[in-house]
Write a structure and sequence with these properties.
Number of helices: 9
Order of helices and strands: HHHHHHHHH
Distance between the termini: 39 Å
Shape: globular
Low-confidence stretches: 1-13
Radius of gyration: 19 Å
Largest sheet: none
Mean pLDDT: 79
Number of strands: 0
């Protein structure tokens, strides 16, 4: 039995949000229209790849914007890339996912848990703080709705509340209110879940 990818009966984590990419990059340069088309055609693949490798599908939005900007620049310098643009785009996206996974220190467990500290020594001087912040954020976001998570990723990408509101067909004020309301609900759900674990 197979299920459609955007079927409402699937869990929220497996549903793919709609593709949304500005035609102007953050630095003010225009994205090449061919790159935007390739990015849109590759969107479901990109989202699933980010979800599979980073356990964070919505971060694919940020990576798509970065890769689309880089590929557009490269296409202007080397027009022959246009002949194999889809393959070039996917390869660049996959490399970025691998680099982020490596940078975030995704650990492939080997041996016993007691050997973990011996085998893997963190190199960052403030790794404990980074780890604690990341754990708090992950704990909070796993109780947030997909809409709240998507809004957070748009804010990380520096989209204005007006742009986010336009995407969700609401005003900027309503988008901001829904986001903060979603965070408050996620925080309440996290507290309830912690209390239930203690009992």
């Amino acid at each position: 039995m197979t299920r459609e990818l955007n079927d409402t009966s699937t869990p929220a984590t497996s549903r793919i949000p709609p593709f949304w990419l500005r035609s102007i990059a953050r630095d003010g340069s225009l994205l090449d229209p061919m790159v935007v088309v390739v990015a849109q055609e590759s969107w479901s693949w990109a989202y699933r790849l980010a979800e599979q490798n980073l356990h964070d599908g919505p971060c694919a939005l940020e990576i798509v914007e970065i890769i689309a900007t880089e590929v557009s620049r490269r296409l202007h310098v080397q027009p022959e890339i246009g002949q194999r643009l889809a393959a070039y785009y996917r390869m660049a996206f996959a490399r970025r996912i691998r680099a982020i996974a490596d940078r975030n220190g995704r650990i492939h467990y080997e041996g016993r848990p007691q050997d973990l500290e011996t085998n893997y020594k963190p190199s960052a001087p403030d790794w404990v703080t980074v780890l604690e912040d990341r754990m708090c954020l992950d704990a909070l976001l796993c109780h947030a709705t997909p809409t709240t998570r998507l809004m957070l990723h748009y804010r990380v990408l520096e989209y204005s509340w007006k742009e986010i509101g336009h995407h969700f067909s609401v005003t900027a004020k309503q988008a901001r209110s829904r986001f903060y309301y979603g965070l408050r609900l996620a925080h309440q759900r996290l507290i309830v879940a912690q209390e239930q674990r203690r009992c």
